[in-house]
Amino acid sequence: MAGHSKWANIQHRKGRQDAKRGKIFTKLIKEITVSARLAGGDINFNPRLRAAVAEAKEQNMPADNITRAIKRGTGELEGVSYEEIRYEGYGIGGAAIIIDCLTDNKQRAVADVRHALSKNGGNLGTDGSVSFMFKHCGVLVFEPGTSEDQVMEAALDAGAEDVVTDEDGSVEVIAAPADFTAVKEALEAAGLKAVLAEVTMRAENETVFTGDDAAKMQKLLDALEDLDDVQEVYTNAVIEE
After folding, report:
1. Domains identified in the chain, total number
2. Based on the domain organization, do 52 and 112 belong to the same domain?
């Protein structure tokens, strides 16, 4: 891990996400719809929906789009019924990958995921083959130079599980998924704005990729993320430019 910069990797990842901004609204509408279907349309009693709506607002999604997505989830409006499916697999050098899908066609989704993996040097694994290497949690990352003491005080008071300062000076806050929004709001109230805030599958141990292997791994991840049924791709691979 020598020379590895979590901050540089986050900036790299955010840049690639920005380049794919056209797909973000589609993903968020799916997530809002499914969240509302599973636990109701009231954000006060549905943490997953509350997080999805907050993200939609940050992405400047129109309020009418958010309302319609919630109503489709609760059955007040007709809409497509999406199924949640998780696939696990391996990338370059055996790197662990988790692929979360929301799809109306399971056969299409698994065929597309399998094809993207095999075409780019990866392969599909079995359920549980890599998920044990990740922790489901809320993560907030603050840029290098942010006061660790200030972050720690606000985060722990709000119910965060841990605060970690990385070698490059960036500060990470880890929270249980159900507590994520409350922790995020408490930090913002304290004047601390995270550059990355998400409920994710956080790799317990990371593998750094450089050179040709980094390019191959990034190509594989891009192929998966470009699939219409794919919502999120998680990996323990760190791509260094």
Report:
1. 3
2. no
Pair 86, 98: CB distance under 8 Å: yes
- The residue segments making up the domain with residue 159 are 144-194
Asked whether the beta carbons of 61 and 28 are under 8 A apart, the reply is yes
pLDDT single digits (tens) 55-78: 899 888 999 999 999 999 999 988
Looking at the fold, whether 123 and 180 belong to one and the same domain comes out as: no
Query: CA–CA separation, 229 vs 101, rounded Å?
Result: 5
Q: How far apart are alpha carbons 121 and 108 in whole angstroms?
A: 20
Dist CA 223 CA 225 (whole Å): 6
Measured from the Cβ of residue 121, the count of other Cβ atoms closer than 10 Å reads 15
Residues 87-142 pLDDT 10s? 999 999 999 999 999 999 999 999 999 999 999 999 999 999 999 999 999 999 99
